[in-house]
């Protein structure tokens, strides 16, 4: 294939294109035969200052032990400085597109995600993630994608979050991966998963829709013997969006509803373990139905933008979905005896653009847990995890952004005397291409 020297600038695809950034930054190489290869990505770094106070204790000032498995959720007062990658890793992406033929567009996508965090040895041990590897075909029927890509449920919540280009929670020097932003503090992480996804053609009147089946996850309990891991059925997720103007007022609106459902059987041993604890409040069945609904909207008027989003889930947990607990919140999708936990949360965010590339924003949100009967008898189960965050950013050029960020989080556990507060603040920069 002969590649010409023609270079064009276009929007970053995949995750970067779906965010609220206005940065244009793709290198596009085209052949005489109509093949296209494009490269895109971003690099970022932040220097952050973190501190924690009011480490919780039980009655009488006794040491506090959180419910398994995340003993690291409770830390003593600390004060550290760290240089970290933010919520977004450093990204190097490549898209290959074939010439249009018979009304069909076919392309393949590869995305490598790296970061600098983790370890103090001279060789370094920052992780590399292969988050995107997929092929897609588009035509009058819409677009069908097969491969690993971003999930659907909760995707709009994270893609509209200003902290996507910041640090947010978990910015300590001991972190060995990216930070959390607002994940677990207003929405659940959607993650990059193997999938077969169908984006429907434009439905008209501002409506669009997407549906996909996914590789199913284990549904994890605080005690491993009560997990649900017999994954005989795929997970199903879907989303409907609407874009338009509010009654001709000039207020732009983007509304969405999304959902997820997965039925997961327990193995014979897991089912027997659950049956043996029915009297203690466990579910008297051999499978788990994990499901959730997310909803929200973004409203824009001149330089103002308001985002409001929420979710409610059953057997989804409070940070990731189904299989991901957290060293921050000490809770999984199922309790110590395998009973499904319910969780809910949301966030509200306001931003304003002053023009000339300068913006300011504030957001507040959190995730909350409805305790099971067994949880009520267990010290150290999370009640909630909330965060206030402020940010100011300036686009120095179309490819370079400076960011200053600050805020604090609160964590609370059942039967603990005190909450724990973590504050953070720092500065950083993004380079887009």
Task: Give your account of this protein's structure.
The protein is mostly beta strands. It has three helices and 21 strands. The strands form two sheets. A 16-stranded antiparallel barrel has the order 3-7-8-9-10-11-12-13-14-15-16-17-18-19-20-21. The chain has a two-stranded antiparallel sheet with strand order 4-5.
Q: Could you name the key traits of this structure?
A:
3 helices, 16-stranded antiparallel beta barrel, disordered N terminus, mainly beta, two-stranded antiparallel ribbon, 433 residues
Please state roughly what percent of the residues sit in beta strands, choosing from under 5%, 5-15%, 15-25%, 25-35%, 35-45% or over 45%: over 45%
- Tell me the radius of gyration: 23 Å
Low-confidence blocks of residues? 1-25, 69-73, 325-329
What shape does the CA trace take? globular
Helical fraction: under 10%
H and E order:
EHEEEEEEEEEHEEEEHEEEEEEE
Strand order of the largest sheet: 3-7-8-9-10-11-12-13-14-15-16-17-18-19-20-21
Summarize the biggest pleated sheet. 16 strands, antiparallel, barrel
